[in-house]
Amino acid sequence: MSDPGIAEKLVEVLHRPDGDPTMRPVHTIGISATGYFKPSPIARNFCAADHFNAEKTDVIVRFSNGSGCAIVHDGWSDVRGMAVRFHLSDSTDTDLIAMTLPEFFAPTPETFLEFAEAARPKPYEAETPWQKILNYLQLMLPKRDPYPGETISPDEGAIGFADNNAYSQLGILQAAQIGAPTSYVRAAYHAVHTFVVTGSDGTRRWVRFSWQPIAGVLRTDPTKTPDDDYLRAELRARLAKEPARFSLMMTIGEVGDDFGNSSRPWPPHRKRIMMGTLTLNAVPEDQFAQCEKLSFNPGLLTDGIEASDDPVLKVRIASYKISSEWRGGSPCPFSEG
Q1: What b-and-e string marks burial along 227-260, b requiring 16 or more CB atoms within 10 Å of the CB?
Q2: Which of 117, 137, 189, 204 has the most CB atoms within 10 Å of its CB?
Q3: pLDDT digits (tens, 9 = 90+) for 106-131
């Protein structure tokens, strides 16, 4: 387990001034949905975990906005999250936590903390038209104008950090351009970290998981007024009419890929296996108990899936536990050590 001092400091630093200490420090606003997962016919060949061998596994999923702001701003450009809990046949659970970024911001717990400190939101200082022109003349992108009602900037510190730390540039650039989805189920989500899976024949493979929406990826119209609240209502209305589905894709790493650094992408031509289909068909009535009080953890794994040596994955496991305790969430899977 990673240094608990860094994990605790991370949770503290990630709380925004417009957040709420009784809620999650990031991915604060969310909604849960329920359904089931069915593995593909070949999934068991690659992973012996229960949910890749059972006929069907019940799930609960929490979708979220990445921001730590406690006020809903669904139309603002933001990373989105998808935390899936599989209810296994032996009455245990396993989690898979993903986001709409395919890479992370930092390779180590120490650099993750440095990034979090540098990226703390600051009061928004909009650029004048002359400043924007000067930026263009220097071949620099100008700052975007603040959204209606936006008073603090989530971007300035992160972009400044990226200017001085090459490892963070890909993730921060992608985050700055990510936009807003038309629906939580019209976005692709990536588990980011490397895991080790064991197949039915005992073969161990280093892999990364992602969820791909069957309906396809679709962003909002950028001319739409961004200060709104539509994602939760859209999910309720959608699932009341018909189920929503995702494919679980597993990318297999090869020699030369960096298994311990989630800020480095793997080559796009790596082999991908379709591991199964997630079907969501209902939104629980009690969103307090079935969403806000839930405690997910990326380290809640099961036989057949192991955490890699990625140090950021390890510190996130500790941070999720601390965050759950601080906000009074349901007992974290690691609350007993």
Answers
A1: eeebbbebbeebbeeebbbbbbbbbbbeeebebb
A2: 189
A3: 999 999 999 999 988 777 777 777 77
Asked if 263 and 103 count as a contact pair (C-beta separation under 8 A), the reply is yes
On whether residue 125 sits in a domain, the answer given is no
Is the sign of the CA dihedral 232, 238, 241, 247 positive or negative?
negative
Single pTM value for the model? 0.91
Residue 165 resides in a domain:
no
CB-based contact 99:209 (threshold 8 Å):
no
HSE of 66, CA atoms in CB hemisphere, 13 A: 19
The model's pLDDT over 5-19, given as tens digits with 9 standing for 90+, comes to 999 999 999 998 888
What total of structural domains would you count in the chain? Answer: 1
Q: How many residues does the chain have?
A: 337
- Residue 159: enclosing H or E segment and its boundaries? helix 156-164
